[in-house]
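Worked example 4.2. Below are the chains of a multi-component assembly; read each line carefully before continuing.
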Amino acid sequence: MKNKLYAVGIGPGDYSHMTLEAVRVLEHCDVIVGYTVYVDLVREHFPGKEFLTTPMRREEERCRLAFEEAERGKAVAMICSGDAGVYGMAGLLLELGREYPDTEVEVIPGVTAALSGAAVLGAPLIHDFAVISLSDLLTPWELIEKRLRLAAEGDFAICIYNPSSRKRRDYLERACRILLEHRSPDTVCGLVRNIGREGQSFQVMTLGALKDTETDMFTTVFVGNSATREQGGRMVTPRGYRSERESAGRKGEC
Amino acid sequence: MKNKLYAVGIGPGDYSHMTLEAVRVLEHCDVIVGYTVYVDLVREHFPGKEFLTTPMRREEERCRLAFEEAERGKAVAMICSGDAGVYGMAGLLLELGREYPDTEVEVIPGVTAALSGAAVLGAPLIHDFAVISLSDLLTPWELIEKRLRLAAEGDFAICIYNPSSRKRRDYLERACRILLEHRSPDTVCGLVRNIGREGQSFQVMTLGALKDTETDMFTTVFVGNSATREQGGRMVTPRGYRSERESAGRKGEC
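Applying the procedure described above to all two chains together yields the following structure tokens:
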């Protein structure tokens, strides 16, 4: 039987946003590995486990640590904020898995910030959408710009991860300037800070105003499509471009 | 105090994929409203609740039913497969909410098929991605084509919802032809059938082969970006286009 290493998405932060399956897997595991901040979010709910942490950016080191524990025959979980498969560790674990053929990697999905942030704002996505990170650590900025431009041109609702950091203070402003080439400055946008954690807050604003708004690495940004509306302080995107009644009439499906 | 109506994403199907928060809300509610199939998925786990169902496509009727129950002072949950905010009922509930000012709509996020299907395949998204539905019931086909073209041009990983139905047998083939304008026929793709339910299965294949593959309304399709690889029968996308080591060297952040 192979050793097991689970890549577990724990959702936005609060224990209550984990899935039952994620809880079950963490309860089953001997060792829980993760970035210090995420381990601190779950530690109290899983007493008696061995917790191993590495600092931010040391992703490969963290993955190898997890594989080494699994190779000792322990059941190991690598926890990720949100979903393990969206800017998470599932990919790197599977890539490195080639070097650890006796260990099987299983991915346990979780609620990523595009979904948990959307729920706070109302319903900003609803329909076709694009998820784009502004971090240029592993991706050339030119490609990020290109994706923003194409997503804007396609009238996708857009969810922006990593809108800025200490080293990338003006990235969201630069992204907004690109979006404004194809989108009206009145486009309804929103942002959520500290989703599912202490200090959670949200704002709904125009794309024009978003350009001049300060964010940090704990902010997730939403840009509506051309049909998105502000309603009672929330951000609401319809499910399409035709009303249901119109569509039912057109197709005779009433 | 306002009446409460919750839009609850129940995840891909199996009870274990619900979040603790979704379970807590359904346990708290008096009435659970939904499309017949989804109600049948949760019914046994919430004994003593009142269940109300409407057939597929009767979305507005289903929402109004939920509001009417809430206006009688009952705590009501509208359940949606996956996430309530991704092709779900959160948007329509918030839109209709204008007509029911005494009822407050709260959205409880869940694991949408882009995430649960990705976990089955391995790690097909990982990085920037676009979610596109091929259903042209509420969106003109021309806009769907345009989005496919732009997403392919931007080298997004793409998750395709509603790839086909009885009335739209050749839509996935048409979509693949468009993607092939910008993407190699060797692009790594995958599909998952019946995610999180009985009969779950998956396949990894090339974009060229996907074009000629039959799918149904319970299939979710994934198209990799140019860096996506097949590895041990799974679909794996790296976190970016530079290796971490290269990036660390370049930025002096090792």
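Take a moment to check your reading of the output against the notes. Chain B touches chain A through 82 residues (CB under 8 Å). The longest helix of chain B spans residues 59-71.
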